[in-house]
Amino acid sequence: MDAHVVHRAAARAGTDVAVTGIGLVTPGGIGVAASWAAVRAGRSPAAADPLLAGGPVAFSCRVPGFDAGALLGERRALRLDRFTQFALVAAAEAVAGAGLDPLTWDGARVGVVLGCADGGPATVEGQHDRLRDHGPDQVSPLLLPMQLPNMMAGQTAIQFGARGPNLVVATACASGATAIGTARDLLALDRCDIVLAGGSEAMITPLVMAGFARMGALSRRADDPAAASRPFDTDRDGFVAGEGAGVLVLERAADARARGARVHGRIIGHGASADAHHVTSPAPDGSGAEAAVRAALLDAGAGPGDVQHVNAHGTSTQLNDLAEAVMLHRVFGGGPLVTSTKGVTGHLLGAAGAVEAVLTVLAVQQGVVPPTANLETLDPRMEIKVADHETETRIDLAVSTSCGFGGQNAVLAIAAP
Q1: What is the DSSP string of 241-293?
Q2: In what residue span(s) does the Ketosynthase family 3 (KS3) domain sit (predicted)?
Q3: 313 belongs to the catalytic site
Q4: How far apart are the C-alpha atoms of 256 and 253, rounded to whole Å?
Q5: Around Cβ 223, how many Cβ atoms within 10 Å?
Q6: In this prediction, what percent of the chain has a pLDDT beyond 90?
Q7: Which pTM does this prediction carry?
């Protein structure tokens, strides 16, 4: 390992970042309790999607019963794209759970770092239809304030009076994890005292789904959508698109202790890398993801033998799952128990890494590895232990892996509170 890399990791290793608040909006339900219960139950809510009717793939994993008007106010909800609505609801749960009062905190020391892959495609598609059918005078003046990716961070800052660094990062399906790693850096550099970190995505639109379908990325198991997302299964045939958000409140552990905060878990390592291999396909040997895993462990001051659980990227696509399994076996052997929660939630794209970070925090906190839904027959080429049922076990350290188009990799090391 390069001496400069080791020195930088050692310098950062002293920053212990506590997770003091968590919020979720997922296909499993609105809120942490509903989402976690659904993931533990191992039942996917994927179903036929009327908005995708007539398209090549007409099912998805939607957030059930999401009433933005009731949650955010009717007038405000109409001025926000769905991906921002999700982020605000998840952030509100996280802030409330952290026991923080935005009216009394020093907003200049509060940052927001969120991730997404696309921003607001539903707004763009809807306004394009208005342009085509009615002309430019009928395009909404809110088009850009609604669809720009940075607007979910900006709107979150407005809602909570967070005047510190305000960022949206885009590393495709690794965006949420990249955002959390970036937030950890801001705390380590003393740029913030509190950071709202995570990701949100709402990309289930006819155009986006047609694009994924044309790439061959989506499952075509239309006769049984609930069984379509089947990570690591020999019969997997693509991912199921999901939507939602995950937000964490992050603080330096010393600050959290000083105010008597409840700590759910700790982010003690972050690694990032690029495959530099292909626009959409992962490096077949998983070498890019491996570099990110090893960097996260080095940052955490831990080794592969210290890890009891891996929340894998596990998209249910042929190439991704095999490359990841090969990589996990090379790094960990047959050690930690692996799960992919995408069997329940579907693939939340840019929000996936954030939602899975929250789920990993819960797994570590409660000593529970949730099942990989729909796993019937493990691909025989995979030499890893994949959880096909809920397992109670002590978890001192877990790793959450995220990968994205462009060869983006982001890995978080999450320790017990």
Answers
A1: BB-EEEEEEEEEHHHHHHTT----EEEEEEEEEE--S-SSSPPTT-HHHHHHH
A2: 14-416
A3: yes
A4: 5
A5: 8
A6: 93
A7: 0.95
403 labelled catalytic: no
Q: In the predicted model, what is the mean pLDDT of residues 409-413?
A: 98
What number of other Cβ atoms are within 10 A of residue 368's Cβ?
A: 17
Q: What is the largest CA-CA distance in the chain?
A: 62
Query: What is the C-alpha separation between 152 and 113, in angstroms, rounded?
Result: 10
Distance CA 89, CA 77 (A): 11
Judge whether 347 counts as a catalytic residue: yes
Identify the DSSP state of 351: G
Rounded mean pLDDT of the chain? 95
Contact 243, 64 (CB under 8 A): no
Using alpha carbons only, give the angle 156, 65, 224 rounded to the nearest 5 degrees.
120
Pairing of strands 337-339, 309-311: parallel
* CA distances for 409 relative to 68, 234, 343, angstroms: 32, 24, 20
Percent of the chain with pLDDT over 70: 97
Taking alpha carbons only, the member of 389, 39, 358 closest to residue 197 is 358
288 CB burial (10 A radius; 0-12, 13-18, 19+): buried
Q: Which of 173, 192, 270, 309 is catalytic?
A: 173
Chain segment 124-178, per-residue pLDDT in tens? 999 999 999 999 999 999 999 999 999 999 999 999 999 999 999 999 999 999 9
Which among 192, 264, 313, 403 is annotated as catalytic?
313
Q: Report pLDDT digits (tens) over 4-51.
A: 443 344 444 457 899 999 999 999 999 999 999 999 999 999 999 999
What's the confidence (pLDDT) of residue 282?
87
